[in-house]
């Protein structure tokens, strides 16, 4: 009989989060990040040249976070798969996640389509497609979109080399390799148990590195916001304010009403969930990148008592396949361009756009200009809306990226809860206790039953 695997070190989430919950508000991360955002806006507005010069500060912080994303995704997935009692469970979790992602994407696209048809923000613009000239980054995004086939996310799934996937930071390819590695590790039985134990221990080290990097979050948020306002100016926000307002309003409606209805069915309050994740939302707001909060989001969801294999598979995969904010943006932007260029679109043509968007929206998470590439791919594939029309919204895209990232974060949080319930692994009473106290609590019974290490350790 094989010797039992050594107990793996539990996730380092609990001590840090419990300690954070006891700190006064002025010592918590979200306060300092919010302060940095406000300071960055003022700097970019009052001293644009200084704000523009702050670009390296923001990009360096985001790069430091991205440096840790692929190792964390690999270690979390491999550790989760290696700790489950059945490989069949891994397949079920993956399939259920993908099914929910498709439903979520469709709902987000429909909400955006309905909103843009009701409010018609592009009516009255009367832009002439022949007068719109693609230049700079916008022209490159359209070129990339024209070369992007609908099935690209399937072929791009397989890396040409395992090391290359990590070096390039391609999360989707890292997920593919991690799942194969985890399955193989589980399949070799007792031979792989020491490696599983080593993966859990290495995970604790990587999360400690993450803790050090997060100390610089306020500085990174300041640099990113100062650069955005300094380069594009606050006036850019007002020039197409109606579209920006509609996008933010539609996204808020989707999170509060649509996702709120989903969590209500799970007997979880959406506002308490959002408050529990407030530090992650503030971090995303400051950096305009949902990737910056991915490692902390995974820790927070484990802190709700959700199994590590569910979190490890659902969250990273959702960053490529469950982009609710990006889906709302796609449907809004495509029809806005049609309205602004006086291009008539029938209901059938709009539904055709939606069908293409279901495919073009996948697999682009974390890629620079992903929203524009997906939009250009959609417009060039359908051919009914001039692709050059993206120049109409290129100037305000940076201000809409924050909302896309925030909505994507909310959507993937809810998706993880849904998959956990679908797997009969969601202890609603435990989740509500954590959300009420905003302090993650250990749930060792769940981990023991699943063959997992305890999610939340006690302090040494």
From TrEMBL:
It is found in: Cell membrane. The chain crosses the membrane at residues 29-47, 67-87, 99-119, 171-188, 209-234, 246-268, 372-396. GO terms for biological process: L-aspartate transmembrane transport. InterPro entries: Na-dicarboxylate_symporter, Na-dicarboxylate_symporter_CS, Na:dicarbo_symporter_sf. Pfam families: SDF (PF00375). It comes from the Bacteria. Keywords: Cell membrane, Membrane, Symport, Transmembrane, Transmembrane helix, Transport. Gene3D superfamilies: Sodium:dicarboxylate symporter. GO terms for cellular component: plasma membrane. This is C4-dicarboxylate transporter DctA. The keyword Membrane applies. GO terms for molecular function: fumarate transmembrane transporter activity; malate:proton symporter activity; succinate transmembrane transporter activity. It is a multi-pass membrane protein. Residues 438-460 are annotated as: Disordered.
């Amino acid at each position: 009989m094989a010797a039992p695997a050594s107990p793996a070190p539990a996730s380092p989430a609990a001590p840090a989060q419990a300690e954070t919950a006891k700190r006064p508000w002025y010592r918590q991360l979200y306060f300092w990040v919010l302060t940095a955002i406000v300071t960055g806006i003022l700097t970019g507005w009052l001293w644009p040249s200084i704000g523009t010069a702050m670009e390296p500060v923001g990009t360096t912080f985001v790069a430091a976070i991205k440096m840790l994303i692929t190792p964390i995704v690999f270690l979390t997935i491999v550790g989760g798969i290696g700790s489950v009692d059945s490989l069949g469970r891994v397949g079920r979790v993956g399939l259920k996640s993908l099914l929910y992602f498709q439903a979520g994407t469709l709902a987000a696209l429909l909400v955006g389509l309905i909103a843009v048809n009701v409010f018609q923000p592009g009516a009255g613009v009367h832009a002439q497609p022949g007068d719109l000239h693609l230049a700079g980054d916008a022209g490159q995004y359209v070129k990339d979109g024209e070369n992007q086939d609908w099935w690209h996310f399937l072929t791009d799934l397989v890396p040409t080399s395992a090391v290359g996937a990590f070096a390039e930071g391609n999360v989707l390819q890292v997920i593919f390799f991690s799942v194969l590695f985890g399955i193989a590790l589980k399949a070799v039985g007792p031979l792989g148990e020491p490696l599983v134990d080593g993966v859990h221990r290495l995970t604790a080290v990587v999360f400690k590195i993450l803790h050090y990097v997060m100390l610089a979050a306020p500085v990174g948020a300041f640099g990113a916001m100062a650069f955005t306002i300094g380069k594009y100016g606050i006036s850019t926000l007002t020039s197409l304010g109606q579209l920006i307002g509609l996008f933010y309003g539609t996204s808020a409606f989707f999170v509060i009403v649509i996702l709120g209805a989903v969590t209500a069915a799970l007997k979880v309050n959406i506002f308490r969930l959002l408050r529990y994740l407030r530090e992650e939302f503030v971090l995303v707001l400051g950096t305009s990148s949902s990737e910056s909060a991915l490692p902390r989001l995974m820790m927070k969801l484990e802190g709700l008592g959700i199994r590590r294999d569910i979190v490890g598979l659902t969250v990273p995969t959702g960053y490529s396949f469950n982009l609710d904010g990006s889906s709302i943006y796609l449907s809004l932007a495509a029809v806005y361009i049609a309205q602004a260029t006086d291009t008539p679109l029938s209901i059938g043509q709009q539904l055709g756009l939606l069908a293409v968007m279901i495919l073009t929206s996948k697999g682009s998470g974390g890629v620079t200009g992903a929203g524009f590439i997906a939009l250009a791919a959609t417009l060039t594939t359908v051919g009914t809306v001039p692709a050059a029309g993206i120049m109409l919204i290129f100037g305000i895209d940076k201000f809409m990226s924050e909302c896309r990232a925030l909505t994507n974060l909310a959507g993937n949080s809810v998706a993880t809860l849904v998959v956990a319930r679908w797997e009969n692994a969601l202890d609603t009473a435990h989740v509500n206790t954590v959300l009420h106290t905003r302090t993650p609590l250990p749930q060792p019974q769940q981990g023991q039953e699943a063959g997992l290490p305890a999610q939340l350790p006690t302090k040494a």
